[in-house]
């Protein structure tokens, strides 16, 4: 991955969101800007929103399950795990709020939410997709699957 390009995109993206959320917004804005030239990008945009919402929900469920597992067994670092679970829950809620705001936005309002059109081009959009895909659990465990 080209970390320099990722850092540049994050720097150019406005907002105080976390890194993943800024990249998601940049990709959604790129897809929205180019829907006039390729109608399939409308589907892609909706797919990404739904997938990210699902991923956030799954992350939250895993955090709750791990907290329950820790509660049932004695742990010396229980307080640290609860804090981490709380942080995961807070981050998940902020991502869900962001995705809900994107879903509720009417197509006529997209132009007011867009970043500068020169922020993300096709190559940057491809890089963002690869970077976000590498953050998914399957991509992170792919080497383990190949080894087995």
From TrEMBL:
GO cellular component: Scc2-Scc4 cohesin loading complex
Renumbered residue ranges of the record's region Disordered: 61-84
Biased composition (Basic and acidic residues): 61-83
MF GO annotations: chromatin binding; cohesin loader activity
Record-linked InterPro entries: Scc2/Nipped-B (IPR033031)
BP GO terms, sorted: brain development; chromatin looping; digestive tract development; embryonic viscerocranium morphogenesis; establishment of mitotic sister chromatid cohesion; establishment of protein localization to chromatin; heart morphogenesis; regulation of gene expression
Protein name, UniProt field: Nipped-B-like
Top-level taxonomy: Eukaryota, Metazoa, Chordata, Craniata, Vertebrata
């Amino acid at each position: 991955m080209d970390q320099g390009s990722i850092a540049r995109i994050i720097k150019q993206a406005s907002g105080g969101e976390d890194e993943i959320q800024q990249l998601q917004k940049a990709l959604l804005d790129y897809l929205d800007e180019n829907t006039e030239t390729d109608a399939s990008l409308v589907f892609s945009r909706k797919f990404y929103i739904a997938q990210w919402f699902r991923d956030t929900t799954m992350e939250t469920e895993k955090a709750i399950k791990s907290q329950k597992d820790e509660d049932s067994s004695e742990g010396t670092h229980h307080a640290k795990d609860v804090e981490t679970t709380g942080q995961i829950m807070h981050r998940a809620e902020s991502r869900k709020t962001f995705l809900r705001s994107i879903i509720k936005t009417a197509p006529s309002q997209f132009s007011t939410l867009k970043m500068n059109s020169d922020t993300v081009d096709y190559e940057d959009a491809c890089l963002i997709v690869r970077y976000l895909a590498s953050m998914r659990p399957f991509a992170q465990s792919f080497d383990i699957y190949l080894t087995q």
